[in-house]
Amino acid sequence: MTTGKSDLVSIRVPYKNLHDDSSAPELELVDVHHRGNHRNSPPPNHSPSPPNSNNAPLLHLVLSCTVAAGVQFGWALQLSLLTPYIQTLGIGHAFSSFIWLCGPITGLVVQPCVGIWSDKCTSRFGRRRPFILAGSLMICLAVILIGFSADIGYVLGDTHEHCRTFKGTRTRAALVFILGFWMLDLANNTVQGPARALLADLSGPDQRNVANAVFCSWMAVGNILGYSSGASGKWNKWFPFLTTRACCEACGNLKAAFLVAVVFLTLCTLVTLYFADEVPLTTASQHHHLSDSSPLLDEQQQNGVEFSKLKPSSVMDESNSTRTEDHIEKDAELKHGNFKAREDHAENVMDGPGAVLVNLLTSLRHLPPAMHSVLVVMALTWLSWFPFFLFDTDWMGREVYHGDPKGGTSEVDLYDQGVREGAFGLLLNSVVLGISSFFIEPMCKWMGAKLVWALSNFIVFVCMASTAIISLISIRDYSGGIEHVIGANEAIKIASLVVFVLLGFPLAITYSVPFAVTAELTADSGGGQGLAIGVLNLAIVIPQMIISLGSGPWDALFGGGNIPAFVLASLCALAGGVIATLKLPDLSSSSFQSTGFHIG
């Protein structure tokens, strides 16, 4: 009996069957027997690179995530200036919230897909850096489109009337703005995930908290610089050439601020790309592992053992003895190649946006029971936050300073002044957020994460109710006389800024505690933490979709302005606090560890 090329068997065992090694998500056993003497042949090296077991130099960690500051700089400008700016192009207040719909869509679908794709990227420049570079270039292009949207619309055929006197809709400029805005959201989500993953790749096992602190510090720097830039009303004076017939003072300020954002992001990205010493993922070491969402797999695949086999040619009939060993090897390689192609195709389908969304939705039934209460409280929490995020500076311009982006010259000036004062309030908010972050972990160990989260919702309830009260008092005291010239009085301005400051503390809690609670609840779920965080993201993006679609029409239903949305936000915060107190599980206070901020 003549022996040809023997069996090649690849056995993949789901990680839930590996009780002795919970850290290994999948075990792959490969057995290859060659014909003849193969003792001198080196064994094939299919093992992946060992995980980073050494702590990275702190300076390298700090410099490797500077891109977070650049991205957050643009995000701060987006939050503070773009809702007011779209109204200057003729889009009504009732519809201005619609432009924010792209954020939750891209956050729901794009960021998980980019994370999966970057995990498998085999570029010689590393897994994360190509996505960071591509996303940063998209951000630069997007903010240029936004900043120059009025000028581009002017060239494409919008009215040639001076922007100071024209109060109608500039359709082409609005379309260019929306294109840039949606591209900016897409690009932000393209950078954020790989940037966080890059820091996790580079940091050692004992550097998780340090890495989170560094990343959040850079985000705080970006917030402070971005809001400071938005609060400045002198950009058009420093760069007068940016003001044109289609782009007046407020537009010139926004244009200059975004150009500064491009320069800052470019520098931050270059520093990250240079100092992030990534090890490329080679094709040989790229194994096909089961993802964190293993409960979503087909029952047959999940409970069984997956085999990929090539039929043996170990027994050869004398009539087939004319076939050479080369023919046998080529035949085996062809079959193996066909199998790998089918496997890769199936895996690519599972990595697509549709499959990611379906996996997240169907995974709800696999979560620990306590996670359902977490999802409800999380959704109510973000229903209370998003009206403020969307309309905070617009609220300052309208209800506090009594301006109007479509009014006369004095009303436009008052509105712009209020928007800049709102950006300054967001700057103060960011400072308080950064300081508060140092006290969250001690508070959770003292009071428990459940009560800390509930407390944050009650504070938001008081603050959002205060915005409605301040607005009603300001409107009641407003008259067409002297206050029409000076805008808000000092007491109203101070009270408004106090609200911005107070909201910094519960915002720090919202950015950290829910994720730490989720991590603790799913710690023993056999690799389901990534899945749970993905589902928790649903409780953020779905409320944002609701607010984006409904807040503008809801405000219009009560005569316009921002008071109806803020009243609804205060009620959601109150409900979130009550449910958190009654339904959230009591977690171990001593084991609490902050997982860092999740911003943007």
What is this structure's SSE topology?
Elements lengths: L7 E7 L11 E7 L25 H7 L2 H22 L4 H4 L5 H18 L9 H19 L1 H8 L14 H32 L5 H24 L3 H4 L10 H27 L23 H5 L2 E4 L15 H26 L2 H10 L7 H31 L8 H39 L1 H29 L5 H4 L3 H13 L1 H7 L2 H9 L7 H29 L5 H21 L17
Antiparallel strand pairs: 1-2, 1-3
Helix pairs in contact: 1-10, 2-7, 2-8, 2-10, 2-14, 4-7, 4-13, 4-21, 5-7, 5-10, 6-7, 8-15, 14-15, 14-16, 14-20, 14-21, 14-22, 15-16, 15-18, 15-19, 16-18, 16-19, 16-22
Note the main attributes of this structure.
2 domains, three-stranded antiparallel sheet, disordered N terminus, globular, Growth Hormone, Chain: A, mainly alpha, 600 residues
Structure description:
By secondary structure, this protein is mostly helical. The chain has two domains: 55-280, Growth Hormone, Chain: A, CATH 1.20.1250.20; 361-593, MFS general substrate transporter like domains (Growth Hormone, Chain: A), CATH 1.20.1250.20. Helix content is 65%, strand content 3%. It contains 22 helices and three strands. It has a three-stranded antiparallel β-sheet. Helix 2 runs parallel beside helix 8 (208-231). The longest helix is centred in the last third of the chain and has 39 residues, at 409-447. It starts with 7 loop residues before the first strand and ends in a 17-residue tail after the last helix. Mean pLDDT is 74; it is low at 1-53, 283-319, 345-349, 481-486 and 595-600.
